[in-house]
Amino acid sequence: MTKRRDDEDDEAISLFARAMREQGRPHKVIDFPGLKGVKVAIWCPTEDEEIEADVESRKYLTKELGLSALDLSLAQETELAKRARETELLALVLRDPDAPEESFVESADELRGAGGRPGIESTQRERLMAAIEDFRHERFEARTPEQQAEIVRFARDLKAVGAVSVWWRSCDSDTQVRVVEALIDATTPTPPSSSGTS
Q1: Closest Cα to residue 133, out of 32, 20, 28?
Q2: How far apart are the first and last CA of the chain?
Q3: Could you tell me which residue, 71 or 110, shows the higher pLDDT?
């Protein structure tokens, strides 16, 4: 009887829901930035979590910080709004490394350091957000061999003219990591481009 009911339940849900239930939610365990020996699991945010983070950050800015509706609308493009939203999102996607279905923190207030307790530093927040973005890229934006070769060729051209150091410093850390990964992954030397030959 139970087997038949399970089969009927499976038929009643969509293919997407069945696939998600069978696979479970992907996570990645990383070192918590700035906390030696502490691990944390991360999820890629879902649409619902992105919306919830938006809503909760607006509530925080209006109720806790006292921003009016006008102040809030003006603040949406500021660093203040970005920090509030990212903190709310982290509270949703930081997970227990041993049991990812469990949250790593009780609430965003814990990350903010409410009630006189220590919270995360801005650099920790930024690095956690970067780790989530890296995980998203790993899962959804794998580079093709052609893209890898193009990155390698570009970096070698810059090196040939002595500009790699200047260019490297101008890149964000995410781009720097991707270039290094492409260079490491390059299995065969890329021939120099014809633009540097006479």
Answers
A1: 28
A2: 80
A3: 110
